[in-house]
Amino acid sequence: MLRVGLTGGLGSGKTTVARLLGERGAYILNADEMGRALMQPGTSAFARIVAAFGPAVVALDGTLDRPALGRLAFQGGRIEELNAIVHPATIAQQAAEIERIARRDRKAIVVVESALIFESRHGDLSRFDKLVLVTAPEPLKIARFTARTGLSAGEARQRLARQIPDEQKMDRVDYVLPNDGSLAELEERVDALWRELQPWA
Ligand SMILES: CC(C)(COP(=O)(O)OP(=O)(O)OC[C@H]1O[C@@H](n2cnc3c(N)ncnc32)[C@H](O)[C@@H]1O)[C@@H](O)C(=O)NCCC(=O)NCCS
Ligand SMILES: Nc1ncnc2c1ncn2[C@@H]1O[C@H](COP(=O)(O)OP(=O)(O)OP(=O)(O)O)[C@@H](O)[C@H]1O
């Protein structure tokens, strides 16, 4: 069993890397998806978010209005408040999932994909055996993010401002995957990474 923390700033391409690792046989846990599932109506996180941020974050269909919550959290300087509600439950769920996978596959390579492995004060790095960082120049990150989400470059910058720069993370990880070229180049780098991870599993 090998627990890999896969991180990278917004638009770096970490979801793409996770997908490629998944195709090669890794188990993938996606922190964004887990966070989203934990914030569904009826959960305690949902109730706490509405209590803290007000009814304006509930959409007409009763689910969270994520753009509205994003604006309040990032532009309103309240992202730490939201993190404190969502992160502990997400990290606990990651630990539970890793346990569950370990019980049925002792040779599993489990990849936890999260933008915030270094930033979150709610989880520590010792829960991973190896750390992988996906990097890209900031303008490229912003271009990918705005194309994927439809949010503005300003909104992308606000989120990036809450993320530690790649340069400060590079010395603290086991592998760096630059993603500033084609998808074919990225795939070659993922193949090399996958080969490196095998002996450790
Ligand atoms: C603010 C929210 C509602 C905005 O939702 P939205 O659908 O617009 O974005 P999504 O969740 O898909 O995130 C997209 C990207 O934004 C960046 N981002 C998201 N949350 C954060 C954060 N707390 N700090 C810094 N960057 C963040 C990441 O690069 C992420 O990959 C949502 O991001 C959220 O609930 N964030 C707080 C919880 C969190 O940290 N989730 C991510 C991992 S658990
Ligand atoms: N090397 C590449 N060439 C072309 N497009 C790419 C490349 N890498 C990623 N992309 C595209 O850029 C967008 C962002 O990539 P991805 O979703 O993997 O990044 P992310 O780091 O998970 O981003 P976010 O933090 O915004 O969720 C996607 O639409 C993806 O298909």
UniProtKB/TrEMBL annotation:
GO terms for biological process: coenzyme A biosynthetic process. It catalyses: 3'-dephospho-CoA + ATP = ADP + CoA + H(+). InterPro entries: Depp_CoAkinase (IPR001977), P-loop_NTPase (IPR027417). Its EC number is 2.7.1.24. ATP binds at G11, S12, G13, K14, T15, T16. It is an enzyme of class 2 (transferase). Keywords: ATP-binding, Coenzyme A biosynthesis, Cytoplasm, Kinase, Nucleotide-binding, Transferase. One of its GO terms (molecular function) is ATP binding. SUPFAM superfamilies: P-loop containing nucleoside triphosphate hydrolases. Pathway: Cofactor biosynthesis; coenzyme A biosynthesis; CoA from (R)-pantothenate: step 5/5. Gene3D superfamilies: P-loop containing nucleotide triphosphate hydrolases. One of its GO terms (cellular component) is cytoplasm. It is found in: Cytoplasm. It holds the Pfam family CoaE. Its main location: cytoplasm. Belongs to the CoaE family. Catalyzes the phosphorylation of the 3'-hydroxyl group of dephosphocoenzyme A to form coenzyme A. HAMAP family: Dephospho_CoA_kinase. This is Dephospho-CoA kinase.
